[in-house]
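Lab notebook, design round three. We kept the backbone fixed and only want residue identities now. Task for the bench partner: fill in a sequence for the structure below.
Input structure tokens:
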């Protein structure tokens, strides 16, 4: 697979990415637990088929101390016993928000209510922002066919 457009090198897309990355900094500075952030980033990227982001967030999660077992089980989190109730709520919200077009009416009330039991308003805002940001980045990478496999932890600072 050959990349169609290098979104990091093109001045227009690079400028847009700069703003997306700054939005991500607000999430990183929030009280949403870092492990939850990485699990959500990985799961959304899996759903969207973004190989570059799956590679990135798998490596970043392990680099940040996440266990290989938990990283490997993110795709089947419903059947896995290694995630907390709060993480499960975040993963469910991430899946529902990513697949928003699949459900008439958007994210079900019970999914939102479960997430709200585990996260305060600022954490919910961070979680929603994170889901929106990674969905945007996934789409840029999938459409441009950015290849996976060469990412190094911390590569983008």
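Proposed sequence:
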């Amino acid at each position: 697979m050959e990349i169609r457009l290098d979104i990091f090198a093109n001045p227009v897309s690079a400028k847009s990415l700069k703003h997306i990355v700054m939005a991500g900094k607000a999430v990183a500075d929030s009280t949403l637990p870092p492990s939850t952030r990485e699990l959500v980033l990985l799961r959304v990227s899996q759903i969207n088929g973004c190989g570059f982001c799956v590679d990135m967030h798998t490596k970043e999660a392990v680099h940040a101390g996440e266990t290989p077992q938990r990283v490997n089980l993110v795709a089947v989190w419903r059947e896995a016993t290694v995630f907390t109730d709060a993480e499960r709520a975040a993963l469910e919200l991430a899946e529902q928000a990513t697949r928003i077009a699949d459900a008439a009416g958007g994210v079900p009330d019970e999914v939102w209510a479960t997430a709200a039991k585990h996260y305060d308003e600022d954490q919910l805002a961070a979680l929603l922002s994170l889901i929106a940001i990674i969905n945007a980045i996934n789409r840029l990478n999938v459409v441009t066919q950015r290849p996976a496999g060469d990412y190094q932890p911390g590569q983008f600072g």
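Keep this in mind before ordering anything: The mean pLDDT is 94.
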